[in-house]
Fold this protein.
Amino acid sequence: MPIITSPQDFNVDDLYVDLRRVIDRPLFLKCEGFNFAGSVKLKAAAAMVEAAEREGVLAPGSTIVESSSGNLGIALSLIAADRGLRFVCVTDPRCNPASVKVMRALGAEVRVVADKDANGGYLGGRIKYVQDLCASGDGYVWLNQYANRNNWRAHYRGTAPAIDRQFPDLEVLFVGAGTTGTLMGCARYFREHRRPVTIVAVDAVGSVTFGGIPERRMVPGLGTSAKPALVDESYIDDVVHVAETDTIRTVHALSSRGFLFGGSTGTVVSGASRWLDAKYPGEEPVAVAIAPDLGERYLDSIYDESWLGEHFGELLPGLDLPAAGILGV
């Protein structure tokens, strides 16, 4: 039994779900949500904070500030609380209410930016707000997950080697694209270690990361309205874009079998399933997908009938939703 003194010291890194019974495809899902931050972002957050401390950028009395749609914000809230630092998370209206509550419970300050950028998203406005805070001279330190090399290095040193050890015959790896830290860290590892693994990036329809046309996106996590500085397409073999309607259908298909995952996982599994159908019909490649988080923080959105009715009403008849209300009322 592990005994820890800091919350970031605990992380389950070797749990995989065989999805064959659920999606009828040969796919293993690496679950990254079993830590105190609840997501894969704990690795990047820890790596960026530790590097900033080593370099003297982050010192006692500093205030960390970061733009986040939720998961990295929670991870930084946890680490800041552990170190006795202040943290300001700059997010937007799409951030799950549960994520905001978790950050505030951990002592973080959450500021919501509602101004959309030129591509119809919020990322540009969030970054501008962060830059203005840092320019104020009040001790703010921006880790900048979108360009910080320690973001991808965390996965180069941790996530990818863990997959490699578990699946030495790995043929295909599916990774969702947000800041692209997880994607680039894994892609660089397998390329530089000369492993013959096909790297497939999974992105949301409406994201501009890989040259897509900007469109409305309601599910937080994957996708951007401004191309991340970390992305290097030379390391990526293929890209799959997934419509949010397919994300919703997939998370509900998973939850109907007892696996409650977040929206990013729904996107990755949907994209992986479609790609395997097209590239390996009737075959059994060794394929792994990364599940960034679990589903509890999405109970007020993608698992909520009212939210679904407002944003994806056309899907409701096809989803196996429980009856509203409490039994007997």
Q: What stands out?
A: DSSP finds ten helices and ten strands in the chain. The first strand starts at residue 16 and ends at 18.
